[in-house]
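Notebook entry, structure prediction.
Reason for the run: the old model in the group folder had no record of what sequence produced it. Starting over properly, with the input documented here first.
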Amino acid sequence: MTAATVAVTAPAPVPAVPAEALIPLTKLSVAPENVRRTDKRGGVEGLAESIAEEGLLQNLVVFETEAGRFRVVAGGRRLAALKLLAKAGRWGGPVRCLVLPSEAAQRVSLAENVMRRALHPADEFEAFAALMHEGHDAPEVARRFGTTVRHVEQRMKLAAVSPALVKAYRAGDMTLDQLTAFAVVDDHARQEQVWNTHYVRESTGQGIRRALLSEHVPVTDKLARFVTLEAYEQAGGVVTRDLFSDDEGGTWLADPDLLRRLAAEKMGAEAAALSAEGWGWVETFEQFPYSGFYNFGRVYPRALPLSAEDRAELARLTERRDTILTSLEAAPDEVLGEELATVEAAIGAVRQRDYGFTPEDMARAGAAVGLTHEGRLKVERGLVRPEDVRREKKERERAERAEIAAARVEAGETVTEAPFPALSDVLTEEMTALRTAALRVEVMRRPDLALAGVVHALAMPVFYTHAWRAESAFEIKATSIDLVGRIAGAEACPTLAAMTEAREAWGYRLPGDVGDLWEWLTEQSGDTLLDLLAYLAAQSLNGVKQRHERGRPGRVEHADTIAASADLNMRTWWSVDAAFLARLSKAQIAAAVADGMGEEAGDLPPLLLKLPKAEAVSRAAQALDGRGWLPELLRTTRQDGETEIRARASQRIAVDVIRNTDDVHPETVHAVAAE
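New structure, fully documented this time:
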C-alpha cells in the first residue's frame, strides 16, 4: 500500500443510553430546558385521575443536577399530576424515571413534544365505546380520562354512526363536521341514503342535518314557539336533539302533525274567547297575513257611557280614595298606603270600561287571529269585510234619500218623481266657486284650520279607504306605493312592523266614523296634529328605485338628501345575514367581504370564489358578522362619509379581487366593472 493521505470519516456520536431509576417525588422539579411553555397544566386534574386508576404508564425523563436533585425535561404534566395526587394522599412512592446527561435535555424535550401524534378521533370514540360496553358509565370514563361527560357522550354518539360512514371518515372522504351531523339520527339506512345523495358530499354539517331531518320541525319554527316545547312533549311528541349543538337550533320536533293539531287547538281556544266578546265573525290564520286586510273596513274603540252600576262603584271608590289621602296627610300609615294602591288600581279598571268597541260595531265587524313570524299570537279586532262595506254603503244611500224625502214632506213640499228644476250647470259652478273663494280667505286667516285640513285630506285615503263618502274638500293628494310586495320576508322586517304599530296606534285614537273626523281634528292640539301629519307624510315618501327605471330618478336623490337630514342609520334596522348573501353572485359576495373587512380580509375574498356557493355564503356571513357592513344602497352619505370616490374605490376592490383569481371568467370582471 502506497503512502498516501486517506480521509477517514468519523463515526456519528452514539446517543447516551438512559439509565432507569426510582427517584423520590420530592427530588423532582421541572427543568428550564423543558420546551413546553404554554398550557403547561392543561388537563392535569384528569391526568391525575388516570394515573390514580391505571398507574404511571410512561416514565419521566430527567437529568441530575450537581445538588443531587433531578430536573424533568419530558413529563412536566405527569409531574404536576403526581404532585396533586401526593397532596391528596393518593401517591407516596418513588417515581420511575429515565436519567439522561444534562447536555441532551433540551433535545430530548423537543423530541418528546414534537414527535408525538394525536389519536385519530375515530380511534378515540371507538375506544370509548369499547369501555362503555365493558360496563363503565360515561361519568366514570370522563373522570378516568380527564374529560367531560358531554365529551364522552358525544364520542359515544359518533361511535353509533353507520360503520360505512365512519369508514369514509377514516379514509378522508368526510369531515368531522359532516360526521357529527349524521349523528343526529340513529337510523343507519337513513344516514347512508343521505350520504349517497350526490349534493350532500359538498354540504356543510348544517346542510346534512337539514337533509336528514327534512320531515322534522325545528324548535325555532313559529308553530313550535307558539305551542312551546314543553306542551308538545307533554302531549307525547317525540323530540330529536343534536348532542353537538349548544343552542336551541339543535332541537327538532319529529311529529309535525301533532304540532299542527296542538297549534290549531290553542288558536281555536283564542278564537272562542274572541267570539265570546261578541264579534260578528272570527277567523284564524296559521300565518298572519301581513297585508291581507288592506281591503277591509275598520271600526275603532270609542268613548262608551258607563252603566249605573259602574258609576256608583266609581263614586264609592273615589270617595274612599279621598278619605285615605286625608288620613295619610295627617300621619303615615303602611296599611292605608297599601289600600290606596289597591283602590287606585280599581278606579283605573272601572274607567277603562268607558272606552271600547260598541256592541253595534262588534256585531257588524269581526276579528282575525294568527301567528307572527316570531310565533307570537296576534289579534286584529274591528275588521269589516269588503262585501259588508259595500252593502252598508248602499243601505246608507237609501236611508239618506228617504230622510231627505221625509224632511221635504214635513216641510210641506210636494215630493214628486220630477223635482223642481235645479240651477244650470254653469250657474251651479259659478255659485260654488264664489263660496269656495270666500272659504279660502277664511281658512287663510286660520292656520289651525289649514293644518287640520291638510291632515284631514291625508288621513282619508289611509284610514277611511272604504268609508262612505270618504272625500275631503282639501284637494291635497298623497300616494303611497306598496313596500310589502317589494321586500323579501316582509313579515320579519322591523321597519314595516314599526309602521304597522304606528298605524294601529293612530287607528285607535281616531274616530270610527269618517263623518266625525273633521270635528275630532279641530278639537286636537297643534302638537297632536303635527304628529299625525308626520305619520301621514311619511306614508307618501317614495325612495324606491323600481326595476323599469334607468339611472337615478330625482325623487331617489331627494330621498338620499332626506336620509342625511334625518341622520338615518340603517344599521339600526338591517344587518347582513346568510339569506341576503345567498341572493348575490359569488363575485358580489367576495366584494362584500373585501369591502366590509378591508385589509383584514386577506386571502378570503379570492378563496370564496373557489368554494361552493353554500359554503361561500356561510364563510362570508361569519366574516361580516358584527362588522356593521352595509351595501352601498343602504348607506347614508353624511353618516358613512360615502362619496362617489368611496363608491368607485369599493368597486375597484371587487374588480381587483376577481382579476386576481385565476378561475373567474373574464365576462364576470367586465360585468362587475360595468356596474
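Summary: DSSP finds 30 helices and 14 strands in the chain.
The old model has been moved to the deprecated folder.
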